[in-house]
Amino acid sequence: MNLDKQKNAPIYTALQQFRRKRVVPFDVPGHKRGRGNPELVELLGERCVGIDVNSMKPLDNLCHPVSVIKEAEELAADAFGASHSFLMVGGTTSSVQAMILSACKAGDKIILPRNVHKSAINALVLCGAIPVYIDPKVDKNLGIPLGMEIEDLKEAMNKHPDAVAILVNNPTYYGICSDLKSLVKIAHEHNMLVLVDEAHGTHFYFSENLPCSAMEAGADMAAVSMHKSGGSLTQSSLLLLGENVNASYVEQIINLTQTTSGSYLLMSSLDISRRNLALRGKESFEKVARMAQYAREEINAIGGYYAYGAELINGNSIYDFDVTKLAVYTRDIGLAGIEVYDLLRDEYDIQIEFGDISNILAYISIGDRIQDIERLVGALADIKRLYSKPKKNIFMAEYISPTVVATPQQAFYGEKISLPIKETEGKICGEFVMCYPPGIPILSPGEVITKQIIDYIEFAKEKGCSMQGPESEDISRLNVLKEDF
Amino acid sequence: MNFWFSEHHTDNVKMSIKIEKHLFSETSDFQRIDVFDSLEFGKFVTSNGSVIFSEKDEFTYDEMIVHVPMAVHPCVKKVLVIGGGDGGVARELSYYEEIEQIDVVEPDKLFVDVCQKYFPDNACGLQDSRVNIYYEDGLKFLRSKTDEYDLIINDCTDPLGHAAGLFTKEFYGSCYKALHDDGIMVYQHGSPFFDEDEETCRAMHRKAYRSFPISRVYQAHIPTCPSGYWLFGFASKKYHPLKDLDAKKWNDRNIKTWYYTTNLHNGAFMLPRYVEDLLIEEEN
């Protein structure tokens, strides 16, 4: 990384110069620097609406960058150790979809973890590729899905040597990392591209003490949520490319679905955040890691909570752990994570990232202060004092290998009928059935419904698992495809 | 020379004090602290541009937050003061012989140092041999304390600043846990007059009322506070602020005060209708 060059923020600078010129706008957007919408100016401020402008020569064009946006993308590529980068304005969903659409065509196979984000499945609906799922191992105590194991990938490759790519979630929402370097090595030996959903790992690029990043591991593409740990505005994201990927083809793919009116608020926020990360990221994330570690120690000292960290590492499905993540197992005080999540918001005015059946996740970032950490810890201590209940054991759903017979695209567009679940054996499922914990689908669109699966759904329901996805909320019926494949 | 300090009490109201001299300005990890000398209020200290106290009116505040609970609780031995780095509260507490221990928890050492230099009349309170100062976050300090104190005084004034954690449900809950079965907590309750302060004031009562069996509010007139009108909260596990007031016992102590009297004690709990109404709304 060239630190001297990283001091520049070309889009930011171009916007400032543009503002000083006081150009009279006879172009879109029609609010004309906010004059046509005073309420919006009151809400967002004059500076903000003043740079909500259209693409034009001095500000470049996101669809085919040649000047300041191109420079900003080159700087981002340099900062993240990538061969090429794209500024993305449709969220990390658009980055994930661009990766998949670039790697696969209709009928191609792609290897994915079963608990892949829905943005990836939606990309398969768009392009007609065939998913090959890998069972993410689950931590039975915590009820969370883990990383991708080497042996599982090898097995999937042997069964499907014609797959064109693999997709890895790294890190997971909970901070679990896979052995990315080895996964890349094996995939490349089999001529498969490696795509990494790195939505929760922007910070990996800016600290030596954090897990290996996708570009460092040699991955071919990575989707990076700059708006999560990177500090940019919501909906802004980066797509990073390695050296084996054709950037102009990826640009064409992006332009299939991307807006032709890219927001300069989003692009400038990416530009400025990239500069901050390059210049100050290391110290910022060291501070974040210290705060998270402090919070873990204090929460564990309360008793009854388990704020887990690097001690989970097992060399395989938990190859590494992102210590900036603060996930806490809450079931030992007799409360589900979602109950603690609701109490924190309703009773203590604290909004955390999420709560699941057994855990909560508090997002710690460069914007946090130690006094706020004290509030979170204090609230957890108070919740234990006031609301704890006897511990109840919970049932953990098991993994059933799916049989994919129709592509997500065929299943999405295929005609469907609703049947009582008992009559669906042998049919092809038209919807998702997710079971929490640990939040891994039992069925996805295009998969055969077997007797084993029907029995398992009934069994898991009886055991109190939370089932989500199907139109019929009590899962008494399922939508299945009319047609056979 | 025309040199004025101004503090916005709302977007449309400001209080200004003519300044003789700007004595000190420095920013700690927590706040920017300034000390000014003025003709009308003497020396005063500000945090991020808001007056914390002045030489002229600090007696009101320090007396009201200490003597009200001390005249109610029959035997206070151990007191915790959260904030209070200036020493004014500790000074008032030091007049009571039965108190054995005064723990003062102030996160910002710079504030203590500044007060020692510029406000020796307050800071002398911290010299008492019964006082221990802890430079720590109040919430953190409280977390490990159970059934330890007779009285907790929350001396922090700004519910929206760096001490926001001391006006939360978790704080009141931690105080409840740290108090003995007959313990009392008093705290700054803000000013209910201006619309934008009203919700904070309501929220404080809502939280304290639900954390303690007895929760009453009392008032004082403090010129440098927004609208010059200030409330305090009295939250208690056992003693009622009026029914359990032992006026004779307190008067026999012969403590020299400028604001507090046992007559005023009773009056301070008699609130204006609009304040009473908003508190009752939060109780239901």
Fold and architecture overview:
The complex is a heterodimer of chains A (485) and B (284). Chain A is an alpha+beta fold. Helix content of chain A is 38%, strand content 16%. Chain A has helices spanning 3-6, 10-21, 38-44, 46-50, 68-80, 91-103, 118-127, 150-159, 180-189, 214-217, 247-257, 264-302, 337-348, 370-387, 408-413, 451-462, and strands at residues 84-88, 109-113, 130-134, 138-139, 144-145, 165-169, 176-177, 193-198, 221-224, 237-241, 306-307, 320-321, 326-329, 354-355, 359-362, 416-420, 433-436, 440-443, 466-468, 477-481. In chain A, the strands form 6 sheets. Chain A has a 7-stranded mixed β-sheet, with helices on both faces. Chain A has a 4-stranded antiparallel β-sheet with strand order 11-13-15-14. The longest helix of chain A has 39 residues, at 264-302. Chain A starts with a helix and ends with a strand. The model of chain A has no long low-confidence stretch (mean pLDDT 94). By secondary structure, chain B is α/β, with parallel strands linked by helices. Chain B has 2 domains: 4-54, Spermidine synthase, tetramerisation domain (Spermidine Synthase, Chain: A, domain 2); 58-283, Rossmann fold (3-Layer(aba) Sandwich). Chain B has helices at 58-70, 88-93, 109-118, 120-123, 138-143, 169-178, 195-211, 247-252, 262-268, 273-283, and strands at residues 4-10, 13-27, 32-38, 42-47, 50-54, 78-82, 101-105, 131-134, 149-154, 179-190, 214-221, 229-236. In chain B, strands 8-7-6-9-10-12-11 form a 7-stranded mixed β-sheet, with helices on both faces. A 5-stranded antiparallel β-sheet of chain B has the order 1-2-3-4-5. The radius of gyration of chain B is 18 Å and the shape is globular. The relative contact order of chain B is 0.14. Chains A and B meet through helix 14 of A and helix 5 and helix 6 of B.
